[in-house]
What we know:
The protein is an all-alpha fold. The protein is 65% helix and 2% strand. The chain has one domain. It contains 7 helices and 2 strands; from the N terminus they run αββαααααα. Strands 1-2 form a two-stranded antiparallel sheet. Helix 2 packs across helix 5 (93-112).
Amino acid sequence: MNCEKRLRRVLLVCAHFTRNMAYYRAGWRPRTGLIRRTQFWITTNGNFLDIAVLEWCKLFADRHDKHHWRKVVTDRSDFEDDLIDALGPGSNADTFRDYIEHVRRYRDKFIAHLDDDEEAVHPPLDDARAAVGFYFRYVRDQEGAGYAFRGLPLDLDAYYDECYEEARREYRHPGP
C-alpha cells in the first residue's frame, strides 16, 4: 500500500472511531443511564462502544497493525512525547501503556472472545479520544496527507459534535 493510501486509511479509522464514540455517548444521560432501554437500543449502543474500541486498537494497541502510529509517523520519538503531553496532566508513557492494556483487555475478553471474566470493565474513552485527535491532527499537519482528506472531516472535534447531535436526535425520536 502506498503512503497516501495508508494515510487515508488512518484518517478513516480516526473518523470511524470518532463517529462511533459520539454515537455511543449520545445514548446516555448523566446519572440516569441509557436514553432508550429496549433491547435494540441497548445492543446498538453497546455496538457503538465495541466498534470504537476496535478502531482505537488498530491505531494504538496493535503494534503490528498497518495503521498503528509506529508504522505511519515519520518522527516516532517526537510523536510519542507529544502524544503523552496531549493526554494531559498525570499522563506518562507508563500510564498510557496501562491504558492500552485496559482497552486491549476489554477488546480481547469481551469483544473478540467471551472469556472467563465475570464482568466487563468498559474502558473510559476520554484518553482514547484525545489520542485519536492527536494522531489525526499529526497526520493532517505533519505527514502531508493532501489527497487523503478527500471526503473526510478536517476537524475531528467538529465531526464528533455533528455525530453526537445526529445520534441525540435519533435516540430521542427514532425513525424516518
